[in-house]
């Protein structure tokens, strides 16, 4: 045995060999420690991953390699050459990136990344396929990336590799007494110092080490191996320290063989260093090449991004410039409106005159009626649900303010009118539109595409000629990218020259645009406008406060008594009954201006328009000439019309023929050629100067004309009709009434003017309209005639005779007294249809009875709804009305029954009144029958009604025989009635049947077209009653049936079976279209696995479910089971949102797997080891009964808001359920101490379970706490609960301090609780106090609000 000094004669060379041996000794001393810790790390990672994935304890993946787990490219490992495939790591199909089939490898990889101090493991070293079998493959992830890929264990690993593991694996942070610092810091840790020592010795080229350096090596290695935390207690480490001391003192005795081995090892490292240098040079070369390519790619990407940013910057600048130009354009074109319709050139700022409009949204109800919803904000105008509507229509009659509202939208978007922004909130909704394009369709008759309209009439107006190409390009870009608003004002004044569309064409790429269209209502009746084309329908009916508008208009005149003048104007309107006139803002403005000018005022529409025309004529000449015999009374006091009466006659003729032209779209805007067919050039010039006509130039340089307002044109047309009564029955008006489906709205204003001018013409026109009126007549027709009658009365006509055959009374006043009542009395011989929805007094009954008698031969439709008490019932007799086709009587009224009723034409009968001994045997044409509970039907009186299609009977009758009613389509019978339906004939037309009566042995097999069946009450259904009903979609059986057969009803979608009904086995195998199922009957081994379209299931009662009944039911959303089932599995019902299971049901543990849409869960059943980890959308959980919940079953439920547990669970942790608001836990449940950490939203907490050291940190929203049972509350856990109001403790708590819970109202503490002295001294809101606990020196607060207090136990109180 010799010393090392004998090997080399040179001391520093001997020091070099000593340094190598010292490093080898240190490696030997630390290897066992590192090897064991890495084994522990491998075990911990595998256990965590398997538990997370709910796999077996020995589950492994044998198909993934490292390249499968890494994306391509991965920096430093692999690269793509431009767009080609990876040529390094992922160079074969088997090595392409993909998820692990079992997810094990992906999760292990994530755990390794999490353990790496820098998050960049050396994937080049490791083989993922051996992670589960060789722990050192995981260790290699923490070593340097080069030189360690071939090693398989710690025995092959040098000291540098081991030190890299200690430095890079975060697990070793707690294994040393010092902190592990990054390299190259001012104070390096011992691990970094040891690695520097090792690197210094490895890279020496002179093979010599000085004494000073050798001493530093010994000091560093000895200090590392002597660390106090772990290595100081390691036997191998301390043996290595002893050997290092001997080596340092040159007393370590080494055999010759060992000397040779150490020397060879040192020389091998020297050679390895040389080879390593070459390898490092090549590696550096490859790395530089790789980095150069990556740099090139980054530069190309950066260049592309820079170019895109530059393009975006240019686009943003151009867009901002366009918006600025649009704002300036709209300031000039729409920011001002005329105050006086007689002087359209005299305008004022819209901001100074605008008043909130009376605007509603029209929503269609289920019964096809329209419901009006008030518009309260811009969001209501533009939003449909939660998204922008694509196409919005605003309808309103002439002069109601549609154009002004459209201008307001534009100005609010421009934000140039802050004074009107407060008219509607949510003005930011308009800001969401990048651009707004305002188009006046009256000016665009020759164009049909919106984009072209915008180009020609907006873009061309705001850009210079040399800028247009760029502007067009910008517009196309905006078209594809941005959300814009297009306002098309006046659709009723525009028509497609090709006759193909009802409104301008929008191309498909403009899907982000919202189109806002204003129109008069008649335009929306166009068949080319489908319901699906209208996202939102708005209706404008003037302004909310007309007198606010009059106040603003009067403000433009110089006066100091504005309020007084407005009050005088109100009195003028009311005295002359012009309230309906001022609903139109245009006519209101006209009335204000004429009243202010002291113009002659009379309270009729004819007078107003005649006065308006007189004022317009004044603009052409000032010569005054009154009529001695005016053509009509409304012209009596005009001054300037007489001299131009020929012009008036010509204009009226033109207005009439143009208004009722064959093409309705051309009736308001017409060409000069069309106009010249009726008036001369001189008359046209006069009308233009007077402002009666307006002339516009179109883009094609042609001229179009229109009256200044449609109502003006209607007034002239009425003038022509009133003076030429013969034209009423001539070809034009009759054809107009036939040509259009609903022409009455467009005739309303004309008819009103005609009645005001000439009552004879009004009568003839009313006769024409009445003759062409369809049945049932629209209510609008009556409103038109009443309005004409009132206009005639206002023009001093005492008794105006107008024809009306269709009456609809809705209130008593108009029935007894008023215009409608007088019209009714004038036409009592001509009543064809009569509807009354009002209080029926004896006087009204007499009037109606007279109508029955006097109009008996022509009365065809009768509808009466009586709103009176039973004691005030009146009697109606219809025996004289032989031609009635429709009867509907509802309410407390007696109908006189008569066997002599001869109603051969009656098709519709609805009686929900009082009637006895009703005999319908003579009503051979009856198709629809509905009888209420107060009607007594004579038996066997339907046997001759062979045309009956629909029958609804809720009345009294011994029996009803429907056996001859072979055309029946719908049957509904309810009451103590015996029904005979099993006829020898086939009910092949019957689609709907609902019986709540008495039917014995009902058989529906002949009803082959049945779609809906509802049976209830004393109905007995034969077993094969539904056999062969292929079209049957819905059944609801609450009757009696033993063994119902459903298998042939293949199209069933809804089933409800309740009561004494039993279902034969295997009846659901063919019901593949079934969506909704409700069973509360008898069924054994029910199998629903074939019903793959099921959406909702409710099963209760004596029903036994097949275990796999819901396999494959992926559409199922709601399920409620209160029946019998063993081993229920719902895991394939991936769309389930609600589950409620109770009764004798056993649920499989994995039944809730894959239910990631489940929101509500209630279980009161049997289940072992229930796992909810996949149900991360759960919001409500209620689990009771014999259910055992896995401890981590609720870990991932981050959306959970309410939980109620009365089951079994050991080690429950709710800390990850951060949205919890309410917790109720009782029974065999144990909570972890920190189970309620970070529950910031928790408001209610009730625990009667087991929890040791329960803490409530961060539960600052708690308002109610109830703790009972084996709960031990951690000291100080109730601090800072500022919202806590109710606290009940029947648990354990040491040193309970409530001083920082100032809002307590109820305090109930008992049991093993120690209350801190002075804890409640500041409780000023306390109302109830009960203390049965321990407390020293309890100090009461001054509680004026306390109602109850109870103090017991060991307390010293003051």
Automatic annotation (TrEMBL):
Alphabetical UniProt keywords: ATP-binding, Nucleotide-binding
Keyword Nucleotide-binding: yes
Residues of the NACHT domain: 390-493
InterPro entries: DUF4559 (IPR027897), LRR_dom_sf (IPR032675), NACHT_NTPase (IPR007111), P-loop_NTPase (IPR027417)
Record SUPFAM superfamilies: P-loop containing nucleoside triphosphate hydrolases (SSF52540), RNI-like (SSF52047)
An annotated Gene Ontology molecular function: ATP binding
This protein's name: NACHT domain-containing protein
